[in-house]
Write a structure and sequence with these properties.
Keywords: DNA-binding, Nucleus, Transcription, Transcription regulation
Oligomer: single chain
Low-confidence stretches: 393-434
Strand content: under 5%
Strand order of the largest sheet: 1-2
Distance between the termini: 37 Å
Mean pLDDT: 77
Helix content: 55-70%
Subcellular location: Nucleus
InterPro entries: AtrR-like, XnlR_reg_dom
Protein name: Putative fungal specific transcription factor domain-containing protein
GO molecular function, one term: DNA binding
Number of strands: 2
């Protein structure tokens, strides 16, 4: 298409021009991920120019309802804007792409599944219903998109795993954040959390050990490694949205004070449900949140994280900062206190360099929450040093982890997803997300 277009530009369509620019922009991004800071700065202006060229053709893209290029261009734009603080416009592109996909590209399963996981991600992040209903999906799960470790011993179908994680994210929204779920009793909500947690754990166990977060820097190259970092980042987001990190009943929230709590309450569309509708995380969930946050920040600071240089995820980083500071407050003498302090400060410094805070008053206000947590952490660690054996956790009555019968609501019981993970080991086996 590129050769044809440039050999006779006057005969090319605006849609083809937009498609070429999307491909070029994504290509520059991949080159920047694999390169260094100089390459990133050199390609950044090219990426911006390509995106501007595409957006100039938006009217033509939306009017050409019978061509697959329109779907691909819209999805490419959404991917290129993943690092933006404002995700509402990319969400609109994704829903439009899905609508077009149902008209012209249902047989193009890879295109559909890309739209699917972007749609489910946007749903949970923006607290809006997803456009695509799982009950309307009747396609094989993707078989392409495999990642291989440097030694060739570990293989993992990244694309399929990304789709399955998006399916779980959609379930988290539907069962815990949708309008109908806001009327749940505390017991029913906890049962749903327990059941969804089983599914999310099972998904994570499908990742080969060498490709899990703590081993990535030794087992993958920069481009596949960046993709896996993005996957682990999405996993952390699902954990956070599932386990009530920001519950008003959490001791770290109660100790922050009125202004910081007010900032949290107005920081997000999900804040009301997150803070008022959830109990604090159970101890087993808290351990998982801490270890995942620590791994996420290590990867963010690693040389492997090329994708974070292009699309910094301030939201995931902020939550990881909160969890690690809160963990120091709860356990001021744990083995990783000083390590986590350095990790948080280094990651905050890098985030400040990457993210332009101009006009982002919300993020500036959230920095006061981090400052308050750091002060609390300093107080508790100093007190713990002066009073040997002191642990704040013993004074705050964290919930005792207990067994909860899994609530059997449609599509979310752990056993309902088993066939998907069984089939994920056999690429030719058909599967469904519902």
């Amino acid at each position: 298409m590129i050769n044809r277009f440039y050999s006779n530009p006057s005969a090319g369509s605006k849609l083809e021009w937009a498609a070429i620019n999307v491909v070029l922009a994504i290509g520059y991004c991949v080159r920047s991920i694999a390169g260094d800071d100089i390459a990133l700065r050199f390609d950044d202006s090219k990426i911006t120019n390509c995106i501007n060229n595409v957006r100039e053709q938006m009217d033509d893209i939306l009017s050409r309802k019978d061509e697959i290029y329109g779907v691909q261009v819209l999805l490419g734009l959404a991917i290129l804007h993943q690092g933006n603080v404002d995700q509402e416009t990319p969400s609109t592109w994704v829903s439009t792409a899905l609508r077009l996909a149902h008209r012209v590209a249902q047989q193009r399963t890879n295109v559909f599944w890309i739209a699917y996981f972007l749609d489910k991600d946007s749903s949970l992040r923006l607290s809006i219903p997803s456009f695509q209903l799982d009950s309307d999906v009747d396609l094989d799960l993707p078989t392409e998109g495999e990642i291989q470790s440097l030694d060739g011993l570990s293989r993992f179908n990244y694309f399929r795993a990304r789709v399955l994680l998006a399916h779980i994210a959609g379930k988290i929204y539907d069962e815990l954040y949708s309008n109908r779920s806001r009327k749940l009793s505390a017991e029913a909500r906890q049962q749903r959390i327990f059941s969804l947690n089983r599914i999310l754990d099972q998904w994570y166990r499908s990742i080969p050990t060498p490709l899990q977060a703590e081993h990535l820097t030794q087992t993958l190259g920069k481009v596949p490694g960046s993709l896996m970092i993005a996957l682990h980042r999405s996993y952390l987001f699902c954990l956070v949205m599932l386990h009530g990190v920001y519950s008003l009943e959490s001791p770290w929230v109660q100790k922050l004070g009125g202004f910081a709590i007010m900032v949290l309450q107005h920081s997000d569309k999900n804040s009301d449900v997150c803070m008022k509708g959830f109990a604090p995380p159970l101890p087993s969930a808290w351990v998982k949140l801490v270890t995942t946050s620590r791994s996420s920040l290590r990867l963010y600071l690693s040389e492997l994280n090329g994708i974070g240089m292009i699309w910094p995820d301030a939201r995931s980083n902020f939550t990881a900062f909160v969890i690690l500071w809160a963990n120091i407050i709860y356990h001021p003498q744990h083995d990783f206190v000083e390590h986590d302090r350095r990790l948080i400060r280094d990651a905050i410094s890098l985030t400040d360099k990457q993210l332009n805070y101009d006009g982002l008053e919300k993020y500036k206000q959230l920095q006061c929450v981090l400052a308050g947590l750091e002060r609390l952490a300093d107080v508790t660690t100093n007190y713990a040093k002066e009073n040997e054996g002191y642990r704040l956790a013993s004074d705050i009555n964290l919930q005792i982890d207990g067994s909860h019968p899994a609530l059997q609501f449609e599509g979310s019981a752990a056993e309902n997803i088993d066939p998907i993970f069984v089939s994920s080991q056999r690429p030719n086996t058909k599967g469904s997300v519902d």
